[in-house]
Fold each of these.
Amino acid sequence: METTRRTTTLPPRHKATVNANAVKTRCGGSNDGDNLMVSQDDDQETLQFLPSPPDCGISLNNRVVGGTQSTVGKWPWMVTYGFRDKQTRKEFVWMCGGSLVTQKHTITVAHCLLTPTHYIDVARIGAIFLNSTLDETNEQRKVNKTFVIHSEYLRNPRRRKHDIAIVTLMEPFSKQFKPICLPFQRDMKNNQFIRENAIVAGWGATSYDGFISEVLLDVKLPIVNNEKCREFYASKRVDIDSNHICAGGEAGKDS
């Protein structure tokens, strides 16, 4: 099932740029990742494109075993972020996962960027172990301190909707890392994927209110009808609408 977290206010060190039209983009073709173009109209032509297969969404390792440790290359778009303490500015705290969408842009959750004690400094890709540099294939890049947070999330973070943000890298990752494909086709937008399976990957908590995982994990979860999801979250005052996709319900598997 969809999980929720408490959010905080934006720390003064950061500048959040809001683009209310950033939810509509043109997808198709390939580019070098220097620009992430947005469109106010689905029919408006753009000069730069988000990548499409085979330039995105291709795992370098096709094995999928729910709830097990991932392997190098299995999810080549998986990113984690290094945060520094606002006061000491010393060692990184690695937390939160994201996805590469061009060689220079990543998508993550907005609430992760709004911590009052730390500021985002770098992004790392190709890592299996969260707090280790033993991964030979990983790369690290400085991030632009101006990030884009969905305007609706900033207006009302307590509703826990539109919890999404774009983080831009100062320099692109190398071509060995493949971005994920974004589903902008109309049939994908309207599909609730009932009775399909979703795969969740990340370094999240392995139990409710538990510690985060030190290794990249993945799990296969069945998509759940939104009506069932609404019933489950009714007592928790979480509003589930058509913009949500709920997954889970199997014992011992969640995200």
Note: The mean pLDDT is 75.
Amino acid sequence: MNPVYVAGGLIGALLLGVVGVVGVQYITIDNLETTIETKTQENAQLAQTNAQFKQDLQESNEQITQMEQARDLERKISADRERELSKSNSELGRKLAQLEKESGNDGKEAACLRTRMPDSVIRMLGGATKNSDGD
């Protein structure tokens, strides 16, 4: 074997190996660039989705705040109504006790309170009569 041919063959094989490695690296770099581009697009899409979720969350928080304010207002109104109802019931109880006290007396006012109203007046006021004699 001639050393020139051997050296030429080795150099040729070496060049072929280098070209093969460079080709593989070129393909790998191209694939990586494609992957980077895809991931960049996915990242932009995720950033947009994240921004939308943040906006939705902010709107939800504002709605919750408004609902809490409405609930607090309703609770205040309910408490005010409860106080008024309690006050009215207390006043009604006092007046009923006073009325029972006055009707228990034997005076002129007591006789008036014990007098039965005519059925026509009771019906006019929306009540039911005890007897239906047309009195």
Note: The helical segments are 3-104, 108-114, 119-124.
